[in-house]
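Inputs:
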Amino acid sequence: LAKTTQPISMDSYEGQEVNITCSHNNIATNDYITWYQQFPSQGPRFIIQGYKTKVTNEVASLFIPADRKSSTLSLPRVSLSDTAVYYCLVGDIRIGGNTPLVFGKGTRLSVIA
Amino acid sequence: EAQVTQNPRYLITVTGKKLTVTCSQNMNHEYMSWYRQDPGLGLRQIYYSMNVEVTDKGDVPEGYKVSRKEKRNFPLILESPSPNQTSLYFCASSLSWGVANTEAFFGQGTRLTVV
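Outputs:
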C-alpha cells in the first residue's frame, strides 16, 4: 500500500488558485490517485481521480508527473465554501485489486475572505 | 437518489450499554466499511466488508463488531461501549473491492458520546 504525504494545512485568499501536493514515492504500476474533500461534520466526497498526466473536471484538476511519485490537486479560484480537508489516496482499482480505502490525515485548507 | 443512510445521527449512551449504529445503501454496492474520525487522527478504518458474509478488520477494530447478512446493510455494534469510543463515525460503500478507490459514498455520520 503506497504511503502518501500531504501538508497538514494551507491557507488561501478567496479567488486564488490553490495547489495541494501529495507525495507517493512507492506508488505501484496499477495504482490510481484519488482525491476526496471533507467538510466539517460531513462524510468525505469524491473529487477526482487519475493515473497519469492531467485530469480535469468541473471541480478541480489533477496533475501527475511522468514518474507518478507525486500529484497536485489544483482548485481554481477558491471561495470560502472550499474550506475543507482534502485527502489524497493511492490504490489499485483493478477488479480484484487488493487495496482497502485508507485515509490519512489530509490537508486542511482554510480560505480567507 | 443514491445514498448511504446512517442512524442515529446523534447518540449519547452510558458505558457498557450495548448499541448498534445502522448503515444502509441503495446502490447495490458490494464493498462497505466503517470509519471513526477523531481530532488530529483523521479517518481510521474500523471494519470493512467485501461482500455478504465477508468482513475483515481495519486499523482500529478493538471494541467493535460488524455483520453483513445482506448486501445493503452493514451495522456497527458496540457490545460494551467505553468513553474512548466517543467519536464521529462514518459508513461508506463503493461498487466493489477491486474498485474501492474509484468512488466511495459516505453516510452523514453518527456522533457518539459515551459517558
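Remarks. Chain B has no helices and eleven strands. Chain B touches chain A at residues 4, 31, 33, 35, 40-45, 48, 58-59, 88, 90, 92, 94, 96-109, 111 (CB under 8 Å).
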